[in-house]
Write a structure and sequence with these properties.
The protein has 490 residues and is mainly beta. The chain contains 2 helices and 22 strands. Strands 13, 14, 19 and 20 form a 4-stranded antiparallel β-sheet that branches. Strands 15-18-17-16 form a 4-stranded antiparallel β-sheet, with no helix packed on it. This is DUF3794 domain-containing protein.
């Protein structure tokens, strides 16, 4: 049996690997009391190999502390780390790595202070996949147009800046930043990502720490072979932030300038339509069909959901009315999409460091507020969260009432499984009845294809003999099959 086949090759997301590791950095004995600790993570290199992906990364630790004279100081140190995310992987895979800090702990050993960060790496894998399918041959076939979405990963960098005026500041102690993508658009030859960066700054004002916050919009255009209106998704991370300040002590003002280096990564999905055979039979022989399967992904338009949250904060150490609340810094949000009785929701924690000043000096208190917000997305989706405008008040002694704004970037994803005939194995000949007419009682609910396949007759032949048939078949319906008979000459 001569079959006509084709083979489609395209990149697709093939899986996700994850791994955790601990990174540590040592600071000297000048640190008396740790007020705030932060770790910025940057993937330097990711290499796919058989059995996993090896990641080389860099961590930059920032520490704000109180010294023995009760002065507020800052210090930074860097550390490199490696990890291997193990799992099913091939050396030809293209890995995309996302790093995040799960937890930071502080411990003192003798005259030294150690910061330890638990680093979580999530690796998306993209690989080329083959999808072989039958397009024709000596069979009666059922055909379908299948949609294969090939992923085209992209990446690019850009710089943006912002200037704003504040009250006079003595020094900048610490900053943190997070980016949120509000939209990804494809035009001929480029991909455009838009969104905003939430920049949080911890600074000194008249000798006490204060927090500042700034939402900075961005627009990144990356050259990419993309069709107009093609589906795409992406994320943006902040690689570097450079802050400078021009202070006017006489006027009591300060002009801050922020220069940001941004990294954008994502995928453009191109649609390929293939006309494939999804079922077949032979009128002459029994056949055994072999099938090929392929998973394919695409995305829908990214949108942003904004919610205001409030609640009692959980605290890492107690406070009372003798404590003065100074600043809220290092605000961040983590969560996951879940199904509840109220529908699809995004649930997690908004966390921050609350700086307070008590009778024994300043100290940092970790606080967290749980949230659960509606997520208008029924299927699979990629969600990233940004928290901004977080505030804290002590209405009752020992309790902190916290408020914040949660912004969610939601990208719905579509997963499809393609299945088509790729091979045919011939069996025994089909025995042809010698009677001129056969009456067949089909199964209720059968369609034309199911009926034709059981009768080993092409659909058009079945309909020629039974033009009154309606599908799906009703119970008790009879189907007549006519056969041409030749008369032997005497």
């Amino acid at each position: 049996m001569q079959l006509e086949t084709q083979c489609y090759r395209g990149y697709t997301r093939t899986g996700t690997l994850s791994q955790e590791t601990a990174v540590e950095c040592r600071f000297g004995g000048e640190v008396e009391t740790v007020l705030s600790a932060h770790a910025e993570l940057l993937p330097v290199q990711a290499t796919a190999e058989e059995g996993g992906v090896r990641v080389l990364g860099r961590a930059r630790f920032s520490l704000v502390y109180e010294n023995a004279e009760h002065g507020v100081c800052r210090v930074e140190k860097g550390a490199e780390f490696t990890l291997k995310a193990q799992g099913e992987c091939h050396a030809a895979a293209l890995p995309r790595v996302r790093l995040k800090t799960e937890n930071i702990s502080v411990r003192r050993e003798g005259a030294s202070v150690y910061l330890s960060a638990l680093v979580a790496a999530e690796v998306e894998l993209f690989e080329e996949r083959e999808f072989e399918y039958v397009t024709g041959g000596g069979l009666v076939t059922k055909r379908e147009e299948l949609h294969f979405y090939s992923a085209h990963p992209f990446s690019g960098e850009t710089e943006t800046d912002d200037e704003f005026e504040t009250d006079f500041l003595g020094d900048i102690l610490l900053h943190s930043s997070s980016a949120l993508v509000s939209g990804v658009k494809c035009s001929a030859g480029s991909v455009v990502l838009e969104g905003e960066v939430n920049l949080c700054i911890l600074a000194l004002k008249e000798g006490e720490p204060v927090s500042l916050e700034r939402l900075i919009p961005f627009r990144i255009e990356i050259g990419q072979d993309a069709a107009e209106g093609a589906s795409a998704e992406g994320r943006v991370s902040v690689k570097e932030v450079y802050l400078s300040a021009d202070s006017d002590e006489e006027q009591g003002k300060c002009r801050l300038r922020a220069e940001l280096s941004l990294l954008a990564e994502g995928c453009v999905y191109s649609e390929e339509r293939v006309d494939a055979v999804i079922d077949a039979f032979s009128t002459e022989r029994a056949v055994k069909l072999g099938y090929s399967e392929a998973e394919t992904y695409s995305s829908k338009e990214t949108f942003v959901r904004t919610e205001r949250i409030a609640g009692k904060a959980a605290l890492s150490s107690p406070i009372d009315y003798s404590d003065t609340l100074l600043a809220v810094t290092l605000q961040r949000a983590e969560g996951e999409a879940v199904f509840t009785a109220e529908g699809r929701r995004f649930e997690g924690l908004a966390t921050a460091t609350l700086l307070v000043k008590g009778q024994e000096g300043r100290r940092g208190v970790e606080m967290s507020v749980p949230f659960s917000v509606p997520l208008p997305c029924e299927g699979e989706c990629a969600v990233s969260a940004l928290v901004c405008g977080m505030s804290a008040r002590q209405k009752q002694e020992g309790e902190i009432d916290a408020e914040a704004t949660i912004k969610l970037s939601v990208t719905p994803r579509q997963r499809s499984v393609l299945r088509a005939v790729c091979a045919v194995e011939e069996g025994e000949p089909v025995l042809e009845r010698d009677c001129a007419v056969s009456v067949y009682i089909p199964r209720a609910g059968d369609g034309l294809w199911e009926l034709s396949k059981r009768l080993k007759k092409p659909p058009e032949e079945v309909m020629r003999s039974n033009p009154e048939l309606e599908f799906p078949i009703r119970e008790g319906k009879r189907v007549v099959i006519y056969r041409k008979k030749s008369l032997a000459a005497e």
